[in-house]
Amino acid sequence: MHYQTESWGSYIPATTMTVGGDPLERIERLASESAVVIFSMSTCCMCHAIKRLFCGMGVNPTVHELDEDPIRGKDMEKALMRLLGNSSTAAVLPVVFIGGKLVGSMDRVMASHISGTLVPLLKDAGALWL
Amino acid sequence: MASHRVGETGLSDSGPPTHHHHVPYAVFHGINASSTTFVNQEGSAFDFGELEQAIALQGVKVGNDEAKASFFTGRPAATLEMFPSWPMRYQQTPRQRSSKSGGESTDSGSAVNTLSSKADYHQAAQLEPESPISKKANSSSDHQQAFNQKHQQLQQQQQQLQQDHMASSDHTSSRSTAGPSSQIHSPSSSAKPTQEKRKGVGSTSEKPLDAKTLRRLAQNREAARKSRLRKKAYVQQLESSRIKLTQLEQDLQRARAQGLFLGGCGGAVGNVSSGAAIFDMEYARWLEDEQRHMTELRTGLQAHLSDSELRVIVDGYVSHYDEIFRLKGVAAKSDVFHLITGMWTTPAERCFLWMGGFKPSELIKMLTAQLDPLTEQQVMGIYSLQHSSQQAEEALFQGLEQLQQSLIETIAGGPVVDGMQQMAVALGQLTNLEGFVRQADNLRQQTLHRLRQILTVRQAARCFLVIGEYYGRLRALSSLWTSRPRESMMSDDASCQTTTELQMVQPSHHHFSSF
C-alpha cells in the first residue's frame, strides 16, 4: 500500500500494485483510477501550488509523489516528459490528468482555469459538484 | 603596387657597406652583402620584400630617375632609417640626391616619415626619402636593435593597416615632420628646404668630415630619427583609434538596428546584469509602442471606426502584451530577480507588484467599474474570470511561500555542517523562482486574452484604453513622486504624502479621461 500523507485537505490515498511493466502504461492506469490525478514531487513547490489550486476549488485530487517511489518514479517521470513533449527535464512535474485524460502541466491547467474550461471538465469527471 | 615598388627599387652597389638592412616593406633596402643576414633575421613580411632583396643582391642598379628615387638603398650606414613608408624614395648619395632633385617630385628630400609612408603606401603616394640619417657611416649595434624593433613595429602596423580601411588622406596632413607629401604630387616647394638641407648635408658628406661635423651630423640624424619615431608612434595611435572608432560605430549601428544596446547599457550601469539591461532596453521600447497603441485606440474609438477596423487595433494591443510577456520570459531565464523585484518598473508600480507584474484580479477589479454597460452574460463572465484568477493567484502565492519556506530551511537550519552543499541546494531551490514568474505572467496573459473573448470589440477597445491609461498614470505618478520638492525631511510629512498617494492610486469610479 502506498499512502500519501498530506497536510492540505484530504484526498484519496493511491494504491499501487507491485506490478512492474511499462511506466506509461502504469501512468495511464493510475490516471484512470481517479477523477483528478496529479503526478507530483513532494519537494516541488510548483506541485504544491497546483495541489493548493485544486483543493482551493474543492477538488480532492489523487496525488502520486514520484520521488517517493524509488523503483518506478524516475521511469514514470521520463514517460511523462515524453508524453508532454518536453525536451528538458526541468519543469515536467506536476502533470494533471482529469477523467483519465491528460490536461498537462501547470501552465495548461492555469490557462484552462482562466478560460473557464477547467470547471466544466472537473464537473464532467465528477470531481466537482455544483 | 608591388610591381611599382619593385620598379622603384634602387640599389646601389656603391658606397661603404651598410650594417643595417631593412627589408620590411620592400620599400627600402639597405642592401649589402653583409647585411643579408640582417635581412633574413628581419624576415620580411612581404613577398615583395624578398623579391626586392633578391633584386638588391643582384646588384641591380637604379638610375637617377623615379625608379631609383623611390628606393632606399643601403648606403654606408644609411639605411637605418628605413622607415615604413613606401614607396620609399631614397637618394643614396648626395650626388644622386642633388642630381635627382629636379627629377622626382617626392625626392625633395624630406625625411621619410613612417607615418606618411603608411598613408602613402595606401595611396600609392610617393614618399620622401630619408635624409641624413641614412647617411650614417657607422651603425652601432644598438641602432641596429632599435632598427629591428622599429622594423617589426612597422611590419605589424603595416599588416594591420592593410586590413583596415584605406586611410584618409588627412593622415598625411597630420604629419609634421619634414612636410612629407603623401599625395602623388609632392610639393617640391615644401621639400625644398629639406632638400637644401639635404643638399647641404650631402655636400658636407662629400668632403672629408671632421669630428665636429661628424658629431653634428650624427646628432642631427639622431634627432631626426627620434622625431620620426615619435611621429610614427603618433600616427600609429591615430590609425588604431580610427579603426576602433569605425568598428564601434558599426557595432552601434548594428545594435541600434536590433534595438539593443548591449555593451553601452550594460556597461554604463555597473551593477545591472546584461540580461536585465537588455530587458530594460526592450521594455523602454515596449513603452514607446504602448504610447502608439494608446493613441491608436483613442483615435479609433473617437473616430467611430467600424468593428473590423477596431478589431485589428484591439488584437494588435493583445499581441503587444503578448510580446512583453515573451520578453519577460526570456529575461526570467537570465535574471529572475530583476523581474520579481520590479527593478524594471517605476517605484509606484513596484510597490504594488505581484510576482513580477500586475495582479490580474486587481486589474479586473479596477476595470469592472469602467466597463459598463455589460450584458448579463458578460458580467457573469467577468465575475468568474475574477474568481478563477483569484484562485490561481492564491495557488501560486502558496507555492511561492512553500519555496521560501524550504529555502529558509536550507540556509538557516542548524549548524552549517556543509556550507557549500547547503548553498548548492539553495541555488537549486532559487531556480524555481523563474517558474513562478513565468506562471504569473502566464496568468496575466490568459486574463487579458479572456477579457478580449468576453467583451465586444468596442468594449475591448475601451477596456484596453483604460488599462493603458491606468498604468500610464501610475508611471506618471512615480515620476512626479521622485521629482517632488523635498523641503522637509520630517517623517510625518512623508507618511502623509504616502497616504495621499495611496488614495490616488485606488481605482476611481468615474471614467478615466485622457491624461
UniProtKB/TrEMBL annotation, chain A:
CDD domains: GRX_GRXh_1_2_like (cd03419). It comes from the Eukaryota. It holds the Pfam family Glutaredoxin. It is found in: Cytoplasm. InterPro entries: GlrX-like_pln_2 (IPR011905), Glutaredoxin (IPR002109), Thioredoxin-like_sf (IPR036249). SUPFAM superfamilies: Thioredoxin-like (SSF52833). Residues 36-103 form the Glutaredoxin domain. GO terms for cellular component: cytoplasm. Its main location: cytoplasm. Keywords: Cytoplasm, Redox-active center. PANTHER family: GLUTAREDOXIN (PTHR10168). Belongs to the glutaredoxin family. CC-type subfamily. NCBIfam families: GlrX-like_plant (TIGR02189). This is Glutaredoxin domain-containing protein.
UniProtKB/TrEMBL annotation, chain B:
It comes from Ziziphus jujuba. It is found in: Nucleus. Keywords: Activator, Coiled coil, DNA-binding, Nucleus, Transcription, Transcription regulation. This is Transcription factor TGA9 isoform X1. GO terms for molecular function: DNA-binding transcription factor activity; transcription cis-regulatory region binding. The gene is LOC107409892. Its main location: nucleus. Residues 231-258 form a coiled coil. One of its GO terms (biological process) is DNA-templated transcription. InterPro entries: bZIP, bZIP_sf, TGA_domain. Gene3D superfamilies: 1.20.5.170. GO terms for cellular component: nucleus. Residues 144-163, 181-190 have a biased composition (Low complexity). SUPFAM superfamilies: Leucine zipper domain. Residues 90-117, 165-180 have a biased composition (Polar residues). It comes from the Eukaryota. Residues 1-23, 83-214 are annotated as: Disordered. Residues 210-254 form the BZIP domain. PROSITE patterns: BZIP, BZIP_BASIC, DOG1. Belongs to the bZIP family. Residues 276-484 form the DOG1 domain.
